[in-house]
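Example record used in the benchmark description.
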Amino acid sequence: MRIWILLAAGLVVLLILLLIVVLSSRVTIKLDVVLRNNEYKILAEMKMIFGLITRKYEVPFHLANGGIEYKKKTVPGDQGIPLGSKEEKHSSSRTVRYSDYVRVLLSTKGLKKWTKKTMAAVHLMDVRWSTRIALEHAADTAVATGILHGVKHTLLGWMSYRLIMEEMPQVEVVPIFNGPPQISTELYCIAKISCGKAMYAGLVLIVRVLKVKGGIKTWQNTLFKA
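Model output (structure tokens):
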């Protein structure tokens, strides 16, 4: 009998240690946003529990019908969804309308406060933001280049107060003086947050949604559409 008690105690201790290890691990998200001529897409890779769970997604999108129309594809990989699987084959276009997410914002109590606290737990690194721009006149291109530099540094400066910026962002604006009018941008970054903090943030968000009458229904309708 004493042996079984010791084995049970040892199992409990082992489970607690495993839980601590899992909660202390980090969720890593690599994000690559591409906006250029006739090519708008988001490439995302998410890793959890020391890389044991990995998912890669490619989301081409365009503006349409008062929102963003997109088609999510799971990128095949060694640890992702195999090529030709059911999840790979069944992908349909969906539209996220701005009005839907306005209703979601209004249906969540203290969303601004929750967002600030969650962002404060996120570590951001390897930020690379490159933009190419060309206008009809060289002088206009030069002015636009300076404005874009200012906008980027202002935005990244604001983010540095909200998130933990571990490295200096690499910002680049390339003027094109001899090309046709165009503007394209590419943003790449890596964000990390501990599994424990991510799970806690999710629970807090659920509680805040429950505090608003009809909040759950609004979220369900929006997520179902998306």
